[in-house]
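In the previous chapter we treated chains in isolation. Here, by contrast, the input contains two separate entities that must be folded as one system, with a combined length of 605 residues.
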Amino acid sequence: MQIFEDQERPEKMSVDKTTVAKIADLARIAVREDELEPLAGELNNILEWIEQLSEVNTDGVVPMTSVVEVDLPWRADKVTDGGYRDDILANAPQTEHGFFSVPKVIE
Amino acid sequence: MTELTKLTLAEARDGLVKGDFTSRELTEQHLTAMEQGRELNSYIVETGEIALEMADKADHMIKAGNATGMTGIPIGVKDLYCTKDVHSCSASHILNGFKPKYESTVTANLWQDGAVMLGKTNMDEFAMGSSNETSYYGPVKNPWRATKENGELGTKDYVPGGSSGGSVAAVAGDLAIASTGTDTGGSIRQPAAFTGLVGLKPTYGRCSRWGMIAFASSLDQAGPITKTVRDAAIMMESMASYDIKDSTSVERTVPNYEHALTQDIRGMKIGIPKEYHMDGMPKEIEKLWQQGIAWMKDAGAEIVEISLPHTKYALPTYYIVAPAEASSNLARYDGVKYGLRVEGDSLDGMYKNTRAEGFGHEVKRRILIGTYVLSAGYYDAYYLKAQKIRTLIAQDFAKAYEQVDVILTPTSPSAAFPMGEKSDDPIAMYLNDVFTVPASLAGLPAISVPAGLSSDGMPLGLQFIGRAFDEETVLRVAHVLEHAANFTAKPKVWWGDK
């Protein structure tokens, strides 16, 4: 295998500044305008490298859903644990009246 | 008194039970060593008071005749494990100040057996890295330094590997008898190889992931980092358990792993995958691998050449699957429930500002990649494709195990490298995990064993990959290789007062 050498990489599916801004918005990460271009470059490098997967024939291959062969366990639909309101709120940056509090969303 | 920090876990266990020293003495010596070794930056938080309390409790257990293999053993705990009321931040700023109100199952198992927590060890942020240079708490230094041509110890700092960099640096520097690590694509095995230690990633499902801060849920697995194979066997037994709180943990009896260390591998079939011979790999790695093969033959094993044809695609597959899962897992950090909050002009603005400031660059890069490959229109081309190739990779292994019992490979394509050398090139950094990622994608148990030194005196490791849930064979062959390699080198102490 030859993964140490820089190979010619196809230039499809590349992302531009607009796409990076859109992804960042979906991921809820604020990105400054001047960061978009360098990020697009970094993401394209990785995506171009990943592109080599397209040469693998996966016709009729079942996608992996579980890495070990196990049946997921079943249990009765009953409450078995809980009642830790204060513990759950203990690490919150801001709480009010036993609730998490966030900036106002309705005017 | 002799230096108790130099003991292996098995030696410490035996000494404690015989009454040669107490856990308090053993723990105190480690706390002193930790103070001396702060320059390594292997611990984010030292928990000396808790350690001494736990040590006293362990000494009572020993006196009462209730000792287990881990009773009284001082260990480092990777910052990724939730430990009740103690800093647990996965070395990320976004979890700033987080002190969970609960204990992870793996650490709870260890405390139940009487182990002693020395502190929380440093790591790559959210376990994303191969050099421990992405931690919010600063990089970890490898206790090992390369030797110059004139035979003197160099002064350059080396990375300890990652992501469990603090865990390995603590053990290699004798600041802990052993430590917990976690492995998603090689994060136990590669740093163990870089620091002359043993690192075991068990089968996916062997350890509960409950209370481990998630990175990539279908890959993350807990495991021990130790000085010897025997130590790994002892600690693995304590960490492993079926846990109703983790639906992917597997209900299987945990064997006595130490019993597997028979030194007898006669007739065992050991596979050598031809695809792991890589162009551009340093000659000394190839040579070490050949040496490992010779040791196995000498011990009576049969060597079989095998093929794992999809090896080449494992890394790019991993860099779709892991970021995709990470982008989902890390969606929970929103400035509401725990950790950092940075205000904004709206709820969305608060989310975005918090996540911009709280995540480091590598983490953001992976969240963005993950978000992209899961986004509408690209899901089939990337994520589904990757999960199909993952099936092919697992099938390669399944086919190989029709012929062989275990597989021998190098752990990493190089020895530890100087700090800063690869931090600007993500793909060069990702290539560190080229030999460890395939077993992760297939969920298989794998171990790294120190096998030799590079020409400039840095440790090198070999890896065994076993069948699912056959940690015993993995440990047995590793024990034979450890014996043959007789790796006794230790880093020369350059930190602290010495």
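Residues 242 and 271 of chain B are 30 Å apart (CA to CA). Chain B touches chain A through 83 residues (CB under 8 Å). Compare these points with the single-chain example from earlier in the chapter.
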